[in-house]
Amino acid sequence: MMKMKAERGREERPEERGRPDREREERAEEKQERSGWTSLTEKQSESVEQIRAAAESLELPAELPIEDLCSLSSRSLFPAAVPASTEDVLLKGFQMLGMEDQRIETAQQFFSWFSKLQAQMDQDEGAKYRRTRECLSCYQDQCDSILTDVSAALEHLDSLQKQYLFVSTKTGTLHEACEQLLKEQSELVDLAESIQQKLSYFNELETINTKLNSPTLSVNGEGFIPMLSKLDDCIEYVSSHPNFKDHPVYLAKFRQCLSKAMQLIRTHAVNTLHNLTSQLTKRDPMGVANADNAFTLYYVKFRAAAPKLRALIEQVEQRSEKMPEYQQLLDDIHQCYLDQREALLSPSINSTITDLTSQSNKDHCALVRSGCAFMAHVCQDEHQLFGEFFSKPTAKLDELLEKLCLSLYDVLRPLIIHVVHLETLSELCGILKNEMLEDHVHNNAVQLGAFEAVVKQMLEDVQERLVYRTHIYIQTDITGYSPAPGDLAYPEKLQMMEKIAQSLKEEQMKLMSPDSSFSDVQLEDPESRKIVSPGGVEGSRVPATVSPADLHGMWYPTVRRTLVCLSKLYRCIDRAVFQGLSQEALSACIQSLLKASEIILKNKSQIDGQLFLIKHLLILREQIAPFHADFAIKEISLDLKKTRDAAFKILHPKAVPKFFRLNSHNAILEFLLEGTPEIKEHYIDSKKDVDRHLKSSCEHFIQQQTRTFVGSLEEFLTKIAALKTMAIQGGPTYNLSQQPWAQPAKINDLVMSMYRILKTKLPGTLQSMSLYLANKDTEFILFKPVRNNIQQVFQKLHTVLQEEYSGEDLQIIACPSMEQINLLLSVKGLEFVELRFQLHAQKMWGMTTLTMGFCLALERPLKENNDAADAARSLSFLFIWRSVSTRETPASPSETRMTVVQPESSIPD
Known about the structure:
It is a single chain. The chain is 70% helix and 2% strand. The N and C termini lie far apart (143 Å).
């Protein structure tokens, strides 16, 4: 029956669910009112409904026994399917709900029962929340009680704080009042001390004045320096406070005391210095001391008195920067000291200089050296003695020393300006510049400042005199040189010297002792050179002889004089002045060589004149290479050509009407615009002049020798070339063998005559080259263009003969073959010149590129106009290389009279 009721209830539930929500809410409210429960909020109810729906949709676990269904109070009490055999279990469930006696027959009863059941379930579910609310309410009451207690405590604390602030304020006020009283007390004490301190400076006036007026006061006493310091402090203090009462009066009194103190110091210093001078003067009334007692007389006495006076002077020097009175006192002491020293030294210095002049009247160099050394020692001794008295330097000392040094300058200058020898002037420059300035002055520049000024002035005078005498020397001994017959005796001079050298060499070979010397003139190079065989093995050392042509005595006099003059000027004068003088000297030397070459050419032969000029130009080029100077000068000239043309134009009668035109054609305006003179600058380079003349002389020599050997053949080939040119340009055809001047017999005579000339004149030419140039390398370079020209002429001749003549004609002509010509032109001794030069160059510089470049320069074909230039360039390079490879170190000053001194032994740029 219960089962049927439950099924009926489930059938009627959809209908109950379809009722309006309003009725359900009303019933829920009635239930809550009846039960006295507090209704849940809508959100809480929705949450409960969602939980309930989720719980209903869950299935019971299969492993849960059916007996436990009664214990599931939180789940749905009506499962989806209950087995029929469980009526007892359901009965027990209804008993637990208190409904075992009630029956649910209608839907109304079921809903009523269900409402009760739902209200009971809601009440069971909200019980824990009510308990929590009750607990929280209890907590709230406790917190309210605690908050009341805390508020009461805070009120008590505020009261305590107010009381503390009141007490603290009262205490701070008391402390401030005490501090103010202490501060006022300190200020009063400081004021009293300040007044006492300020009064102390004024109170010192009486004490200081008393001490200064005391007859027992001494500047060397122990109390004088402290009194002076106190006086300085008082003056400084009173001067820095002009607002004090009676300031001018006290300041004047203090300054009066200072004047008394400084007067005492001045009197003591002056008296001490005067006493020293008077003692020394009484000992030697003439003021002249000998060498034995000079140091004692002039320095020992002063140094003995220096310590006592130095202590007092140091106090003055320390105060000189602060007060002008002390500076004036120091200046007075300086002046007194320097006056006394001048009075002592001047007579002695003048006497010493006079003695030196009388002893070395003819030897100017010794006089300058000894006089300058004497004055340098005097300057050093005076500086050291001045340092014994004073700790600070003064310019007055240098003025005194410069005045003393000028006494030497006044004696030496008249002697210097009358010296006429360049050797003496150059040596004087070396003494003043090297020994005095670079050695003495450089090592002690402070003590020798005055001496340096006088030496520089003296050096300028010597340099000016040297430049003047050099100009005269160039004009008289180089430009105006008239050669003697012996100077132009070429080649006789060289032949004679070669014979002498050969005889001396033969005598030397007879003497087997290697240490024996046969002549003062050494004709052999002190360094033996290594000769390298073609296989690369170094041969034995053999001495390389120096030809007589390379001796300085065999040089033309103007060349020797020019080089000696330049070597003496190089280190003596400024670079710019040296460049101007060197340009003038080289130009004059070149002109003298050209004149001498022309005279030799007229008197002897053309080859002698040409080789003479080439030889000496090479010597010039070699000797001036180490000078690190530019042998070029700039000349400025005023070109008045345009001014002249404009003047002629304005003076023309047609230009008179243009004077009054007011446009660009005005004659005066045109004269001003067009007649402006021009300033032109041009450079004169003597080194390039040497190269240019060397090139020209080589060119003339090559052309002249070529004409001598194959001149007729060149004319013959020129005729043939002209004949071919006419035929090519449309002229008549020709048959060379039919020409009267080109017949085989004629050509045979021409070729034979040229061949005989080569055989007869070639040895003489080579002998002349060997005699003048005296170097196989130079001979090879200069002769190679001539040889190439001869070979080219014969090569052209062979080509023409092969083209124009038959075999029979060639037999008649009988022209020598190229092998015969080359064999004839081969010079004994010149075959390995090029190889030897390469090895020497590689040994000197270690530069394979330099050797290859020079060999290429030698091997390239020499054209017509390039022969002389290439030969001159190669010769210049060769001679520079020779000068570098054979030169050791510059000659010493003692050797300058015999040899040409090279300025430096470095490789030229």
